[in-house]
Write a structure and sequence with these properties.
By secondary structure, the protein is mostly helical. The protein is built from 16 helices and no strands. Helix 4 runs antiparallel to helix 5, helix 4 runs parallel beside helix 14 and helix 13 runs parallel beside helix 16. The relative contact order is 0.19.
Length: 313
């Protein structure tokens, strides 16, 4: 059943790629259009998605579990960052790609794909834990992650001050608002909550249309023969969730809902923000697109694998 739910969720997501692909092939969607959609996602729809996901009834038990979710995910991110830095030196990847590779190893699609999969498999409580995992990613993704992409684009080092400034962005502000509303027990009135929910709901379709439009500009032969993209797949889909499984085993033990969510969120494919940020900061969009597409296809096999492992190891 779990495998069927995952395949169904991924299939629905992939179907949404088609309009972007077709419209880009027809010349209806131009590069400036995808740039505009990327800005809309990061500035408006994604923050609304996070706020909407956190509109749940307050629970002390869930709040107490939050510290474990955040702690383990921070450990996973820290180890993955160190590993990615080491690997980019070993394989001698050019600076125009090394930052993107590091980004793709660390940051998964915990929002666009992760939250719907958590909802389909485990229900609302899993969505809340999943949103916390996603929020932990956001703290790093919109600071260190953006810095990695910007460095790849400019081939220059980004200063500490600029990195910290990355926290002041709509997505992270959305996380703060969502947590504040949850802890205070405030439910948005329908006149506000409904528009926020609807705006958040268009995040995944918009993001997949952006990916589809970039796919139309990618040589498919290069996509399936790219050695660096398969390296990304191995690191993101096997190494990253294995690190998460290790920390889960050491800190809280396996078999619980929280453990399952943490490991499965770590097993999600490369975040579509790799494409969106690469587009926005003029980095290697093709390399990012290949990593997103291949990992999203191959995670159909690896996510069920780790769903089994987290309950058996």
């Amino acid at each position: 059943m779990a495998t069927l739910e995952i395949i169904t969720a991924l299939t629905k997501t992939f179907i949404i790629i088609l309009p972007g692909y077709i419209l880009a092939k027809l010349g209806i969607i131009q590069k400036q259009h995808t740039e505009g959609m990327s800005s809309l996602i990061t500035s408006v729809t994604y923050p609304c998605l996070v706020i909407s996901a956190m509109q749940m009834e307050f629970s002390w038990e869930i709040l107490n579990n939050c510290k474990y979710v955040v702690l383990i995910f921070m450990c996973v991110i820290a180890v993955s960052m160190g590993l990615s830095k080491l690997l980019t030196r070993i394989v001698r990847m050019p600076s125009s790609k090394s930052g993107i590779l590091a980004f793709m190893l660390v940051f998964g699609n915990t929002g666009f794909i992760g939250l719907p999969v958590m909802q389909g498999l485990f229900g609302d409580e899993a969505v809340f834990y999943g949103a916390l995992c996603d929020s932990s990613y956001d703290i790093f993704m919109f600071t260190v992650g953006v810095t990695l992409i910007r460095s790849a684009a400019s081939e220059e080092k980004i200063g500490f001050r600029d990195t910290i400034k990355g926290l002041i962005n709509p997505c992270f502000i959305g996380v703060i608002i969502g947590l504040t509303l949850y802890i205070s027990g405030i439910t948005l009135p329908e006149i506000i909550g409904t528009p926020v929910e609807k705006l958040g709901a268009i995040t995944s379709p918009l993001a997949m249309i952006v990916v589809g439009s970039h796919l139309a500009r990618v040589n498919l032969k290069e996509l399936v023969t790219s050695k660096s993209s398969y390296l990304v797949c191995a690191l993101k889909l096997l190494v990253a969730p294995s690190i998460a499984l290790l920390f889960v085993k050491l800190i809280i033990g396996t078999g619980s809902l929280m453990a399952s969510v943490i490991v499965m969120q770590a097993a999600m494919p490369v975040a579509m923000c790799a494409v969106i940020f690469s587009e926005r900061y003029k980095a290697d969009v093709d390399f990012a697109t290949k990593g997103v597409l291949l990992t999203t296809v191959m995670c159909i096999v690896t996510i069920p694998l780790f769903a089994i492992l987290v309950h058996t190891i």
